[in-house]
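Throughout our pipeline, every protein is held as a single compact record rather than as scattered files. Such a record has a labelled line for the sequence and another for the backbone structure tokens. This encoding replaces a full spatial description with a residue-level series of whole-number codes. For reference, a complete record is included directly beneath this paragraph.
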Amino acid sequence: MTIAFFDLDKTLLAVNSGALWVRRELEQGHITRVQALRASYWLARYHLGFVSMQDALVRAISHLEGMGERHLRERTVQFYEEWVRSQFRPGALRALEEHRSAGDTLVLLTSSSGYLSELVARDLGLHAVLCNRFEVDVSGLCTGRPLGEVCFGEGKRSYALSFASEAGVELSACAFYTDSYSDLPVMEVVGRPVAVHPDRRLRREALRRGWPVVDWGVPGGGGDVALDVSSR
């Protein structure tokens, strides 16, 4: 038995759920145009290298202060059903089944919220979820603080290492699939790092190190699970 870790946005999904969430919140009037522009501004600064995504995530979570957890969960369910559920890459579904057939433990390793991640895990039949969760007070309101370490970058590696250790599995025996260069800390410690539709920096790093680069297609567009341009 080994563990296969999967990133969510732009990996299992063909879209970035965070960007879709901001768009939907704006359309439904849950946030103002100014708030949406501010969120886009932070994302742009991250992509330009001016701010870490960890800082952006902490800032985003802080805006949840005072929101009822039940309300947030209900909104996330609607968001998932209407905007996200149809966006799984066809190759991702085949890769999951290959690992499942091999008896591997399937783990979602993502910076997305627990509310969204649990819905994904339910539909895909995953065994565990490692993600960002939010602190909630005794009255059921979000405090605006993350619960535990932020699951991003080095934080993702910590979560993966802890999970593998508890399972009695070395990370060198595990696989990790992702699209993002920010996940390099995890890719460097697993035995099979796979770049899925990678961003420019990850593609360059994957080719340099001889990691597989695969095309999992888009919903309704076919795509193949293992269109390798390099191999280990």
Q: What stands out?
A: The chain is about 45% helix and 15% strand. The longest strand covers residues 105-113. The domain at 3-214 is CATH 3.40.50.1000 (Rossmann fold).
